[in-house]
Amino acid sequence: MNELRIADLEVILESWNYQEAVERTRPKVTAWSQATMELFRELYIAREALSRRGGARDPNTPTWTDFCADIGYTRQAINAKLKYFVPAELSQDGKDGFLPPAAQPSRADREAASLARIAQFRSTGARPPEWCDDDEALLRRLDAEDKAVQTAHQMTRNILSYKRQYRPTRDYFTEMLSRDQVKGIDKFKIADRRLRSAQQVAGDSIAQFLYSIDDLNERAKAAANLVVRLRDIINDSIEEAVATQGAVGADDCDFEIMEA
Asked: Pick from 28, 107, 224, 250: most CB atoms within 10 A?
């Protein structure tokens, strides 16, 4: 059966005529363009009308999100398509259309507008009608960055708070790496998938930083400084655990080696 369909397609392709195809396609393109413009106008009017009625503040009034869901799409997807639509009433030629590429906002302008919508969302708790997928992606990125910064600050405060009380009495970091079963092994298995992903990002960032240093001596110094910093973090952390949780140190650590 499949061979028959392929044979039929070959016949169609062999008999295709350029001029006949143009004549068939031209009216379809015209109808498609007209229907597309009418659809964008309907969507634009619906969004602006619902935005003015304040559906997000009145639970009894449908919102733009409701409208999009009722026609089978998400608000973000439609907003992305409406991004450059201009209704006839606001266009220079008096026709519905789209901003030409030269008139479209730059990447910096788009990000500034996205940041403004995110600021509005964080202030009101409601996503504005113009909210799109780009806004959602930027919001997730900003939230992740904020969380990373908060975590880093908290870890720094924790380290500083117990570093004054618990000075490392042993070099746990070196002891762990010198154990017989980890010699020559440079990877340890981390059970948490999110931590593995974060570790990969951190490792890539460190590699990028080191390879950006052209002078080999300077690169080696930078790598050594990073190792010393890691050693201090590990030693401080274990020393706190020894003092506050009754751990006895590196010998209690049960590393599970990741298979190559």
From this structure: 250
User: What is the dihedral sign for C-alpha 137, 141, 142, 144?
Assistant: positive
Residue 163 clears pLDDT 80, i.e. is over it: no
In the numeric block, the tokens 């304040």 are attached to: 54
Q: With beta carbons less than 8 A apart as the criterion, state whether 163 and 234 touch.
A: no
Q: Choose among 200, 169, 163, 182: nearest CA to 253.
A: 182
The residues pairing with 85 across neighbouring beta strands, listed in sequence order, are 98
> What is the per-residue pLDDT across 214-242, written as a single tens digit (0 to 9) for each?
888 888 898 888 888 888 887 777 777 77
For 207, phi and psi rounded to 5 degrees? -60, -45
> Count of CB atoms within 10 A of residue 8's CB?
10
Crossing angle of the two packed helices 133-163 and 107-124, in degrees rounded to 10: 70
How does residue 102 score in pLDDT terms, banded at 50, 70 and 90? Answer: low
DSSP state, residue 251: G
Q: Is the dihedral of CA 25, 27, 28, 32 positive or negative?
A: positive
Q: What is the model's pLDDT at position 150?
A: 75
Residues 87 and 44: their CA atoms lie apart, in Å, by 8
Residue owning tokens 């005529």: 17
Contacts (Cβ under 8 Å, ≥6 apart) of 165? 243
Q: pTM of the prediction?
A: 0.42
d(CA 164, CA 161): 6
Confidence (pLDDT) at 250: 45
188: β partners = 257
Predicted local distance difference test score (pLDDT) of residue 257: 37
